[in-house]
Design goal:
- The protein has 22 helices and eleven strands.
- The chain is mainly alpha-helical.
- The strands form five sheets. Strands 3-4-7 form a three-stranded antiparallel beta sheet. A two-stranded parallel ribbon has the order 1-2. A two-stranded antiparallel ribbon has the order 5-6.
- It starts with a strand and ends with a helix.
- It binds one RNA strand of 77 nucleotides through helix 4, strand 6, helix 6, strand 11 and helix 14.
Length: about 525
RNA sequence: GGCCCCAUCGUCUAACCAGGUUAGGACACAGGGUUUUCAUCCCUGCAAUGCGGGUUCAAAUCCCGCUGGGGUCACCA
């Protein structure tokens, strides 16, 4: 039994696509499930980009989610280098082999000629395939053209009138008629390889056993199969998984459409939360995060476990009931047989629900660790963070309880860090500026002043007593106290809020609220 | 338009391959309970096999057609 080797081959675009991350996850899981290797290869054949800015976010996303690669950038491996831009000698050698064996030919036709051919075929409503004029050229003529510096490209000579059969691990049998396949360019005039060619050469050389990729690559497959066969390679197994759709649609989730996603009801909440949070973190314009990027989820405080769980459930299920899946469980159970064939929408609501589950599971100290950087970035606390400050943050996290869904939610605790609070005016009018309320608030404020100790149970008892004596509903004071001390209508238990603020600050804020 | 893929609640899916279930679960939504608000938690409800033919005692499940949706058609990856 040979080793399972899977790969994910991103091109350095400067961000990691959430849908691409799902494909990468399936590759990673399949490799790990079978004790194999997961390889990261960088498809940078035609781009001259800054490694740091273009590749950085991609590696960052993998590391954040804990999907470490066995071979690839920064970790190396026995088949290095893992950048296609550094592997051109392999493509050139393979090209030469194909030319020698007659599987590829030099095409001297111009772009204009090809375009015209294509147009004509279109007009006559017949499928376009190459006319292969260069094949008619005599050797002498070819030499002449070359000496004259006439540019040419190398094309694969597609065998006409034959059938390509793919036994895909997910789609089962898919067939193509080669008579309908134009001869693909595999090398440019300057000797650089094209995607389909470089991919085939690398997949073979890296000994990739399973090519797991999104179904939009299905049309590339017959060409790649032909190339593998012409090169005499052992064919990898192919598994075309469904692509990820934009929420509520059947269209492929695309980075180019982010602006229109802003209006998508399912995506709206994500955008809005980002608009609230990122400026506070000083991440506004320059970073330009959006929910198509993995980094968005990291920066807004999602947990890897939440994102991973959601990604795994797009197009895959363990059984008829299990929804909560840890990476560990996934590694133990992942199988391509249970990948569905239909494209699946990315559901932000479901992600949020998984996130809620995993955040609840997170040990308190890790929650605090996750929150602290947000408070630092928002300049609500400063570095180095003292033990005392950390304890204070911890007590807030405890008070927040399950209300803390994302780490960025800790920013809602702003009133505990600064006196510069924003009042929810509508609720302030309703709960504080209301007949009889200020009088009760003032009266109870005086009781708080002498209350010792200033603790949750003591406050609760005091409020109960006050309400029994006056016949006032506890809700009246509870709401009035929260609004006047935090400005917010929702949040931790009101006694927790007061305890967190301390007696002095609580009294001062009540006084200030009574004067508003 | 050519080629290719796909089709179960609003969404993600189970049951399909080896035909027989009141078509199950989760999210969302609605209602109720717990709670000082919110969140959590618990209960209840809503809600699907695209259409038409076959095959069969029996079809979500097997076959064909239709319709619909989508992907892809570069000297991009």
């Amino acid at each position: 039994m040979s080793t399972v080797r899977t790969r994910f081959a991103p091109s350095p675009t400067g961000y990691m696509h959430i849908g691409g991350m799902r494909t990468a996850l399936f590759n990673w899981l399949y490799a790990k499930r079978h004790g194999g290797q997961f390889i990261l290869r960088i498809d940078d054949t035609d781009q001259e980009r800054n490694q740091e800015t273009a590749l950085g976010p991609i590696l960052r996303a993998f590391r954040w989610l804990g999907l470490l690669w066995d071979e690839g950038p920064e970790v190396g491996g026995s088949h290095k280098p893992y950048f296609q831009s550094q592997r051109s000698h392999l493509y050139r050698a393979a090209a030469e082999k194909l030319e020698q064996s007659g599987h590829a030919y030099r095409d001297f036709s111009t772009k204009e000629e090809n375009d015209a051919d294509r147009k004509l075929a279109d007009k006559e409503k017949r499928p376009y395939i190459n006319i292969r004029r260069s094949l008619e050229l005599s050797d002498a003529k070819k030499r002449e053209l070359e000496t004259a510096g006439h540019p040419w490209v190398l094309r694969l000579l597609v065998p006409r009138e034959s059938k390509i059969v793919l036994d895909d691990l997910i789609r089962e049998r898919v067939e193509w008629d080669t008579s309908l396949l134009p001869d693909p360019v595999i090398m440019r005039a300057n000797g650089s390889a094209l995607y389909n060619f470089a991919t085939v050469v690398d997949d073979a050389e890296l000994e990739i056993s399973h090519v797991i990729r999104a179904e939009e690559h299905l049309p590339n497959t017959p060409i790649q199969i032909l190339l593998h066969e012409a090169l005499g390679n052992t064919l990898p197994r192919f598994a075309h998984i469904p692509y990820v759709c934009a929420p509520g649609t059947k269209e492929k989730l695309s980075k180019r459409k982010v602006e229109q996603y802003r209006k998508n009801p399912a995506f709206k909440r994500l955008f809005e939360r980002g608009d609230e949070v990122f400026p506070q973190l000083g991440l506004s314009a320059a970073v330009a995060l959006d929910p198509v990027m993995v980094e968005y989820y990291e920066r807004i405080g999602y947990l890897p476990a939440g994102v991973l769980n959601a990604l795994a459930r797009i197009g895959w299920s363990l059984d008829d009931r299990t929804e909560i899946l840890s990476l560990q469980t996934l590694v133990e159970n992942f199988s391509l047989e249970r990948v569905v064939k239909a494209p699946a929408g990315f559901d932000p609501d479901k992600l949020f629900s998984f996130q809620g589950h995993w955040m609840k599971e997170l040990p308190l100290d890790e929650k605090v660790d996750g929150c602290v950087p947000y408070l630092v970035d928002a300049k609500l606390i400063s570095e180095p963070v003292s033990a005392e400050t950390r304890e204070f943050v911890k007590s807030i996290v405890v008070a927040l309880g399950d209300r803390l869904k994302l780490f960025a939610d800790i920013l809602d605790a702003r009133p505990f860090f600064t006196d510069d609070i924003t009042f929810d005016e509508k609720n302030f009018d309703k709960r504080v500026r209301k007949d009889g309320v200020p009088a009760h608030l003032a009266a109870f404020r005086n009781r708080l002043e002498t209350l010792e100790p200033f603790t949750v149970p003591a406050m609760e008892a005091a409020l109960q007593a006050y309400c029994e004596e006056t016949g006032e509903q506890t809700g009246t004071l509870v709401h009035a106290l929260r609004l006047s001390t935090t400005g917010q209508a929702v949040g931790p238990g009101v006694y927790d809020c007061l305890a967190l603020l301390g007696k002095e600050k609580s009294l001062a804020r009540i006084d200030a609220a009574l004067k508003r």
